[in-house]
Design brief:
mainly beta, SH3 type barrels, five-stranded antiparallel β-sheet, 2 helices, 9% helix, globular
């Protein structure tokens, strides 16, 4: 396990063609690890017939709404929760 609950992280902002499970609107954004899930076969490679191994850890990451949508106005104090695979996460800067 690379990250722990409460730890700040950044979502990698890199191009990726084809199937992936990381929403565009969280790429390059700062979040916080809320839960560490189990490791699962990688759906990004399984989508193309690979076995998805080695397994990849999945994390529940929360984002301040204002981090994702600074101009959103009402509800700026809310948080959005997204499951993100470890290979999309980086240490917060």
């Amino acid at each position: 396990m690379k990250y722990r609950v409460g730890e700040p992280v950044m979502v990698a902002d890199r191009a990726h063609h084809g199937h992936h499970r990381t929403p565009l609107y969280i790429k390059g954004k700062a979040g916080r690890i809320e839960r560490v899930h189990a490791a699962f076969r990688n759906p990004e490679t399984r989508a193309y017939g690979d076995d998805g191994l080695p397994e990849v850890r999945l994390y529940l990451v929360s984002f301040a709404r204002s981090e994702l949508w600074p101009d959103a106005g009402a509800g700026a104090g809310y948080r959005l929760y997204v499951d993100v695979f470890e290979h999309w996460l980086e240490e917060a800067k």
